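Contributing new records

If you add data, match the layout below exactly. Sequence lines come first and carry their own label; structure lines follow with theirs. Keep one chain per record. Anything else will be rejected by the validation script.
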Amino acid sequence: MPHLLDKPRPLLMAHRGDAVHAPENTFASFRLALQAGADLLETDLWITADDVLVCHHDRTLDRTTDRSGAIPDLTLQEVRAARVTGSYCGAYDPASYPDEQVPNLDELLDLVPAEVGLALELKDPRLGQPRYAAQLVDQIQARIEARTVLLLSFDAGLLWTARDAAPEVWIGKIGMFSPIPLFRGDGIGTTYPALRLNPLYMWIARLQHLWVCPLDPSPEEHLPRYLRMGVDAVLSHDPAKTREALRHYNR
């Protein structure tokens, strides 16, 4: 990713946007993250019943919206009828965000400036089907060519299907507790306890030319260790707070 990696590391990756101050995975959260200076916006992808890629973390609308139902069973129109007010870590007044909808991928691509990266986490199992993987990489082809998009997943099979559709696409594997970084792709991420357990984590990752981002959306307490390790990015659900902490530790 020459364009992104020209920036000073660690890059700041906004997890579901600014999920502390606005509903997660909404235009409001993405805009706040951009204002905070995020280098990348992370979001999650599901496919509606009429084959539209949308940005939402859960399979269902139940947790974060005023509607219910599974996204794969709903049309885009039905998904767009929901209003998003919830977040897994929000400290805001939901009444301040009465009109936030579930964005679709094309809208996100239009919103995010060219100099800001996108980290798209593949959630929908159907992205393991070649036709849906081809649809995804076709939509993000311009960013693949610009090297400003990353595909992430806990499921390596989804990543390899995307790689089959676009051999040049950047792919990163996420693990909840994976103390040994083994992946034949481009990036890797795991939890803070796993990183602590293996002091050779970064050395092993670098032997494989892997880009490293800890799976830690509240990273401030651990930033000194991450900076010593030389990680490539840090995740944050409060990018303004994390940006300020990075400034403090980089003085």
